[in-house]
Write a structure and sequence with these properties.
The structure is a homodimer. Chain A has a single domain, classed as Pnp Oxidase, Chain A (Roll). Chain A has 5 helices and 10 strands; from the N terminus they run βαβββαββααββββα. By secondary structure, chain A is α+β, with helices and mostly antiparallel strands. A 6-stranded antiparallel beta barrel of chain A has the order 2-3-4-7-6-5. In chain A, a hairpin with a 2-residue loop joins strand 3 and strand 4. Strand 9 of chain A pairs antiparallel with strand 10 of chain B, so a sheet runs across the interface.
Chain lengths: 217, 217
């Protein structure tokens, strides 16, 4: 298996090309750290961008949803789609307004979905989606009934065309701007998990896999 | 001015319709809290979804970027687009895998962009984008030069068709599942700002507007 996905022209990062990365290790790590993705489909030229949960296994991304959802129906029938995951790492404050930026790691995957009808693959994918959000959770939660399985469509997307775009580090100002007395640097941002809040009818002890969750896991 | 945006059929929330909101106050608050958006455009039926900074003023959203960027060029020429902002508020862990969910607030805006060529409106929009990310920052940073203004395209999108979708609260399990000894509840998530990190050549005191930044402001 190649250590690179397919760097086609349409996934090549053209603006700030130095920020583009194409190796699997980088792309997979961003997909694994993201909690949710934004998926775009287009109907008669009109794009729709919707947030979804997902999981990655090898070069496959799994999504799920109601078979009645427009997004899922489009994906299941192989409509061209774009899946984007963005991790916001910080705000970059340069001395000039022009050089303000974000530190971020994003992945864009182009391709098309296919419906998963095999019962075993569907069950595995649903476990992966639950475990992607909270590792270890699938062993605890009640698995899907036949009725629930029927009410859930699972879509697989093979990661073929994909790229990452990453910005890290301090602002880069024009040489003459370094003399200005303007604060410049980075404000780091991270997604942080608070203490788990049991629902009213939950008398269970907080499980270890939840105590380990740090919101970026 | 109506207190609702245009609830057309294509922005109406159909799945979990009770989660749909259409009033300006709700939609504007989500747009104002979000740090960045995912914008979708389509080229020959292929969607592309890209993260961007933005700001809202009244019923207008401003974006900026290089005039050479594919996204910005498409937006400036009025291509149909979708702008989505998603705030992830928590993971919802139900007793059944099926009822796992996220708590989130998202907004979808459909429409098209227009290029801002008026110098004054362009300068105002760029200040708003910087201040949206860090309120008060525009008064400190050096404003754009003529050359920088030329190298920046500003696109305005009138918020006309828009909807919000919001999930809050604990998991909702099937009645018989409440007997299971599975932990159930919410893991709250929030985007948190760390201490500002000055760049190597910055000798300035950390300004008050940065000390007030909490990453969600």
């Amino acid at each position: 298996m190649s250590s690179y996905y397919n760097k086609t022209r349409r996934v090549t990062v053209r603006r700030r090309a130095g920020r583009g990365k194409y190796d699997r290790a980088t792309i997979d790590a961003i997909l694994d750290e993201g909690k949710f993705a934004h998926v775009g489909i287009a109907t008669d030229g009109q794009p729709f961008v919707i947030p979804v949960l997902y999981a990655r296994s090898g070069d496959t991304i799994y999504l799920h949803g109601s078979p009645l959802s427009r997004l899922v129906k489009n994906l299941a029938t192989g409509a061209p789609m774009c899946l984007t995951v963005t991790l916001l790492d910080g705000l970059v404050l340069a001395r000039s307004a022009f050089h303000h930026s974000m530190n971020y790691r994003s992945v864009v995957v182009l391709g098309q979905g296919r419906e998963i009808s095999d019962r075993g693959e569907k069950l595995d994918a649903l476990r992966m989606i639950v475990d992607h959000v909270i590792p270890g959770r699938s062993d605890d939660a009640r698995g899907p009934s036949d009725k629930e399985l029927k009410a859930t469509e699972v879509v697989a997307i093979t990661i073929d065309e994909a790229s990452a775009k990453i910005r890290t580090g301090p602002p880069v100002d024009d040489a003459e701007d370094y003399e200005l007395s303007v604060w410049a640097g980075e404000v780091p941002l991270s997604l942080v998990a608070g203490a788990p809040v049991p629902d009213e009818r939950c008398g269970e002890r907080i499980p270890d896999y939840l105590l380990a969750a740090d919101g970026r896991g």
